[in-house]
Amino acid sequence: MNARIERVVTVGRIGVGREGAPPEGFELENNVWIVGDDESVIVVDAAHDAEAIAAAVDGREVLGLLLTHGHEDHVNAALETAALLDTHVYLHPADLFLWEETHGDAVPDFELAQGASFEVAGTALEVLHTPGHTPGSVCFALPALGTVLTGDTLFRGGPGATRWAYSSFPTIVESIEAELFPLPSETVARPGHGADTTIGEERPQLQAWLQRGW
User: Which of 57, 119, 42, 20 is closest to 88 using CA atoms?
Assistant: First the structure.
């Protein structure tokens, strides 16, 4: 097995012209993940810069573009990226309402669901439905690579934000406990923004998260 995980950091502006945001929006860095080998890959998330993502893929066959959730900064380059890479877009249906805020009537190609599995470069990528940050948030576990791609569900230092009406702190904690904490302690958690962590580093912090409430 020659599968590997590559990180592409993209930078862009979100919230431009949206209520509650400054007119120029906010600048944000995102992690885009490429899983595969020299021949074929799966891309996880499509943030800000389709051309940068396509350049990192560098001509390899793309078996799918999988989205961790429907927030603008994770999907805003999805349609352009999919067109450049001649691939299909996958999103959990519970986040379609968020996708529509960015892409309107243009819908993803396929739905993600708990327990679905994708194979690339001889390794399996498993879908874990982890609602809380958004209703349709998912993580992607790669047991053979000792990794889980956590989107905005789990970061170094705690869960993702739950400040929106459709978000829930109790739900995201339940998702992390049910789907992520059972993974081996050495599992590397690679989030949608910022630095990696491990399940073993984050698991002991649960009570501290509960006490602070976020």
Answer: 42
